[in-house]
Design goal:
Elements: H1 2-18, H2 24-29, H3 35-43, H4 47-52, E1 57-61, H5 63-67, H6 85-89, E2 92-93, E3 107-113, E4 119-126, E5 130-132, E6 135-143, E7 149-153, H7 163-169, H8 174-182, H9 186-190, E8 195-199, H10 209-216, H11 221-229, E9 232-233, E10 245-250, E11 256-261, E12 267-269, E13 272-281, E14 284-289, H12 305-311, H13 315-323, H14 327-331, E15 339-343, H15 359-364, E16 367-369, E17 382-384, E18 397-409, E19 415-421, E20 424-425, E21 431-432, E22 436-440, H16 451-454, H17 462-470, H18 474-479, E23 483-488, H19 490-496, H20 498-503, H21 509-518, E24 520-521, E25 533-538, E26 544-550, E27 553-557, E28 571-580, E29 583-588, H22 601-608, H23 611-619, H24 623-626, E30 636-640, H25 642-646, H26 657-666, E31 668-669, E32 678-681, E33 684-687, H27 691-696, E34 705-708, E35 715-720, E36 726-730, E37 738-745, E38 751-755, H28 772-804
Parallel strand pairs: 1-7, 8-14, 15-22, 23-29, 30-38
Antiparallel strand pairs: 1-2, 3-4, 4-5, 5-6, 6-7, 8-9, 10-11, 11-12, 12-13, 13-14, 15-16, 17-18, 18-19, 19-20, 21-22, 23-24, 25-26, 26-27, 27-28, 28-29, 30-31, 32-33, 34-35, 35-36, 36-37, 37-38
Helix pairs in contact: 7-8, 8-11, 10-12, 17-21
Amino acid sequence: MMLRNLVYLLLIVLPLCLCKPDTIIDIISNDHRFKILVQHLERHDLMKEFKHRSVSTLFAPVNEAFERRDEDATSYYLMGRKVTREQLLYHILPVALTSDDLYDGQLLQTKLSSEHNVSQQLKVRKGDGLYVGDVEIIERDLLANDGGVVHTLKNILTPPVDLASTLSDDRDLLEFSRLVEKVDLTRDIKEAKGYTLFVSKDVLGDLDTVKKNYLMHECGKHDLSQLLKHQIHDKIVYAQDFPDGRTNYKTLQGEDLQVVVNKDGKITVNDVNIVRTDILASNGVIHFLEKPILPKNKDFLNFGVRKTLIGMNATKFTSLFDEHGLGSYLDEIDHDKEYTIVAPPNEALDESLIPLNEIPSWLKYHIIQGRYAPSDLIDGALLKTESGDHLSEANQRIRVHVTNQDHFLDKVGMVKQSIQFGRAGTAGEPVSTNRSIIYPVARALVMPRDPLSRLPVNLDLSTFVASLYASNSGDDVKMAKGITIFAPTNEAFGRLGLLTKHLLQPESQSKLESVVKFHVVRQLYYSNETEDGEHREETLAGPEINLNKTEHGFFVRGSGAADGSDRTVIAQVTEADILVNNGVIHKIDRVQLPGTLEVSNRDMLSAEGANSILGLLERTELGNQVLDQINGKPYTILAPSDRAFAKVNFTHLLQNPDKLLDIARLHIIPMAIPRLDLVINNGVLDMAMDEGDRNLHKDITVDGVEFPTLKEGTNVVIRKGVTGGYSAYIKNTIKESADVVNVGRASNGGGVIILDKVLLPQYDEDHYGLPWWKVLLIVIGVLLGVALLAAAGYYAWQWYQRRREGQVSI
């Protein structure tokens, strides 16, 4: 009886044990593994969620999940004291899904919604196991009679956090997060009601260094913000929501993104592959791209001069332009003008070295008119800048130096160039904007100095510099605006000989001033801009001067040229375009004399200190005729130096005025001074060795040229030395010649030739001593006579000795 009752009981209980539980609540309530989960569901009054819906899915963490502190989910503590209602809702799906219904990449809509009513998704991943989120399902498909499904989890699911936090928590998205924070977009993204972000690891992509530097600068925050907004769509679009084919999505920046889903399911955004889809956030979704997507409009940054300079680390440069009212150059307000800008970096800029009132002009010196690419630059060219305060209405120039580095080729096989503006070398490749090109340089430009500071640097102009100060012309030259200085070299002053000595005398200050200022033209003449042909310009001295630009060079002609090609007087520019703040300097090889300059033969003899010849001419009453004429007939005086006169005894001539007059007349040529091209070097007179000069001027030859003197019937010959220099002698005389040691040209064309000997007529040689060769012949004759007498005496003594010894010739 008892056995029968037991069988009946088994028959009743066994079917009950083999039947499915009625609901999900029954499954988790009857399973001790879910005891803590049930407690949390009851605490947050969520059991009713399973009662009101007949079909649903629960991802049920086991008890151990609540007792474990997960390093990746630090909000969970022992006994789940921090488990929230939202976390539990994230484990519940409104539909029943078995493991067979789940696939890799699938998004499951949970019962959790964000504060902005965004339904939170749970992502499925299949690999070596089945995962939801990052938690593995350890037991699948616990089925209830009402269709509900329970999947057992090892850990608790973590609901997504906001977009901003999701970015900062993912290593691949960290750079985008950092830039979002930099441009103050963090709050907008954090509080968004649903965004889709297309993010790459290298956010700025293939932008060049200058653009990247600008975007990372404080001034580039707005543009960087626009670039980031170009990667944000203002609605949530999960990968499964992208329709097949092409679809455009508007960005916060305004430009559309084109999403393409291929037949094989591959998704691209603006032709860039998505390599990670559906990185979930509480208020949006992130898709991770293979590389950044920049706006298709390459000028989206409107990258002008100002932004380029900021990107070149020239922010101090831009600030100075703004502080001094020159910001229009940086903003390219004048749409008709193009510029080349030379930009020094912050560390190379020290405006404290520039006087405050000169800073605007100094800044504009860095702005070159016209847009010059490297291929447009020519070595030695002078480029017109925007500066020009000391040039009246003209613009200051800057010299560019271009050197080809043949040993180095760039990527396309072109020869690399080294470019230098003034003394500032480029420090990188130039950057082009719409109408300008900017060259980064290693140092700030130095403006040309004033002439009085610039000239002394050229040591071969020391005589001209001394003349500026001696004549008190320096301030006038310094204050003049828009001038060209033709500065004679020391050698050029040497060619003037005695005239230079006279001009440098204190009593000749006014004359020296007129000569110095005659070399200063009241116009700008840059060598590369001067047109070929004749130019006649007013000088600072008043009189005009002739300029002539030819294929053979740049020439300057003042007063005194025998003809248009007289290079003994006409100057040629030997070094051009030395820039100064108020114009330009050209070195020339001849001093030019104004027509108003009055210099007599007496002036030059006095400068030389040739008192003997002066006294002789005045004693013979020739002084008025040959010494002081300024505009009359020219005379050339062959003037022996005082030392030469000291070697001659003139005592007896003082009683013979006629012979004294003859000697004086013998030293005067009644015509303009011959063209002697001479240079005084260290007190030694040499003939100029310029081959072109030799070919052009053949007045004086090696064979000599004969000139009449005031002594009737007596001519003087002046000849050129084979190795240099000149000499003079009386024709048809055996007396030795005198060397020319200095010359000087007078205003009327005459002049003075200083000799190292006195020229004496033949009949006066007994009174004035014999020439050295006659003295030498006399000495030799005396020595020969003595030798003969000695020989005769010796033979006589030998004969006498033989006679005494009885030796007689048989």
